[in-house]
Amino acid sequence: MMALLLDGLIVLALVSLAVQAISGRSLFRGIIHFVVFGLTMALAWARIGAPDLAMAEAAIGAGLTGALMMVAYRRLVAQGDNHSPRAPAQKSRLAIPIAVGSGLLVGVIGLGALLADNPPGEAGLIVLETLPEYGLGNAITGVLLLFRGLDTLLEIAVLLTALLAARALAGTGDSSATARTQHPETPLVGALLAVVIPLTILVAVHLLRAGTHETGGAFQAGAVLAAAGVLLVLSGRVSRTDTAGPLVRLGILAGLSAFILIGLMPLLYGEALLTLPGMWSIYLIETAMMVSIAAALILLFADAGGLKRDRRG
Amino acid sequence: MSVEEGIALLFLLAGCAFYLAGTIGLLRFPDVFCRLHALTKADNVGLGLVCVGLALLSGQARVASMLLLIWLVGLLAATVSAHLIARHAYERDAPPEHEGPS
Questions:
Q1: What percent of chain A has pLDDT over 90?
Q2: Whole-number mean pLDDT of chain A?
Q3: Angle, to 10 degrees, between the axis of helix A279-302 and the axis of helix A65-79?
Q4: Distance (Å, rounded) from C-alpha A13 to C-alpha A32?
Q5: Higher pLDDT, A170 or B98
Q6: Chain B partners within 8 Å of A183 (Cβ)
Q7: A31 FRET partner, CA 20 to 30 A, in A107, B2, B3, B62?
Q8: Mutating which of A192, A197, A234, A235 best tests the B interface, going by the most B Cβ atoms within 10 A?
Q9: How far is A189 from chain B (nearest CA, A)?
Q10: Are the C-beta atoms of A303 and A167 separated by less than 8 Å?
Q11: b or e along A103-135 (b: 16 or more beta carbons within 10 Å of the residue's beta carbon)?
Q12: Residue A176 φ/ψ, nearest 5 degrees
């Protein structure tokens, strides 16, 4: 009863937040509603027993995307005249029919899925049988690397492509992501960073290590690490540059190149492509992917080609 | 219901009361500074009470220490962000009308 009540509340909150996010009076309200929507969505994932997705949703869906939207909003404010940018006043006539149609579609599919008898999950059983050979306890990491290695490899490639596309579209010159206020910084920010940055790195490494046997993995760890980077960019400890230094380049490419090199290795012994040769390769690939994911997300956030440390006097 | 559960329930209810009061204050108070005042009560005391209640319910030292850590990090983030918001508002607008003892 309590569980049903809680689930009902989450569903109600999700629908109303989604409506608020797209039909709010101002863009700013829309962004805030979107972030809260992401957090509630993470709660929903956690409720249906998918903590990996919940973590990714909270870190990327709510956290990083929210921060990106805030940066975009600030630029809109800076470009426009002094009043805050507003959402377009008139709604499309198609809005309500599309919303009702989508709702019906989701409802029918959901009902169909509920009514259909579940076929025995053959693939899932095979995965669970194979995982102990590798010493992997987390089925999600196992599937991502052992069974769908090509998908995961291409995901990293897609992230890299997105970064390249963003760089191609971005103008050079000053960026307001790092625009800072004129007045001197309060000492509180330094104190916060001194505590939060080491903690964040600790959490990211823990998530990476835990990814082999429980909730976690390269994507979650990379997102958490990226959050630390976003904090450093926002507080002006790290500032953007137009071209990447060697360290940043290495970071961006580490995941893809480690995955490709280790994935090609089995061909030397006449085995299939992407047959991972053991636990060490999984750790290596996951670590490299974490670094690359974090680097790509930070660069996307800062709209930067590279990063440099900024010592403030 | 055991004694521990009863005490934990009291802590959780008290925490919820702080959150409720803080949220009402956030919605109803007139300016940024009053709203921050209301919000920090929910963030600091409300979160602390909820963490104490949950720690009592779990009954494990490991879980309790993690909840303590969550509370401390929450305190730190809430303090700094409230300070930054207040300073931004102070510099953007005129100083608050009612200058009370600080």
A1: 18
A2: 82
A3: 20
A4: 14
A5: A170
A6: 91
A7: A107
A8: A192
A9: 7
A10: no
A11: eeeeeeeeeeeeeeeeeeeeeeeebeeebeebe
A12: -90, 0
d(CA B39, CA B77): 13
Which of the residue ranges A89-98, A272-281, B39-48 has the most confident prediction, judged by mean pLDDT? B39-48
CA distance A141 to A212: 6
ipTM confidence score: 0.73
d(CA B35, CA A211): 41
- What pLDDT, on a 0 to 100 scale, did the predictor assign at position B10? 94
Chain A residue closest to B74 (CA)? A196
- Picking from B76, B77, B87, the nearest residue to A186 by CB comes out as B87
Q: Looking at chain A, which residue has its C-alpha nearest residue B77? A: A192
Residue B102's pLDDT is 47
Q: What is the CA radius of gyration of chain A?
A: 22
- Contact (Cβ atoms closer than 8 angstroms) between residue A301 and residue A67: yes
- A149-169 helix and A246-268 helix, angle to the nearest 10 degrees: 150
Give the range with max mean pLDDT: A150-154, A207-211, B11-15, B58-62. Answer: B11-15
The 8-class DSSP code of residue A48 comes to T
Three-point CA angle A298, A303, A306, nearest 5°: 65
Q: What is the pLDDT of residues B47-68, one digit of tens each?
A: 999 999 999 998 889 999 999 9
- Torsional sign, CA A144, A41, A25, A76: negative
What's the pLDDT tens digit per position in A70-121? 888 888 888 775 555 555 556 678 878 888 899 899 999 989 888 887 766 6
CB pairs under 8 A between A and B: 21
Give contacts of A 184-213 with B, CB under 8 A: 186, 188-189, 191-192, 195-196, 199
Joined tokens for residue B75:
């305190």
Chain B nearest CA to A183, separation (Å):
9
Name every residue in B having a CB less than 8 A away from some CB of A: 73, 76-77, 79-80, 83-84, 87-88, 91
Write phi, then psi, for A173 (nearest 5 degrees): 105, -165
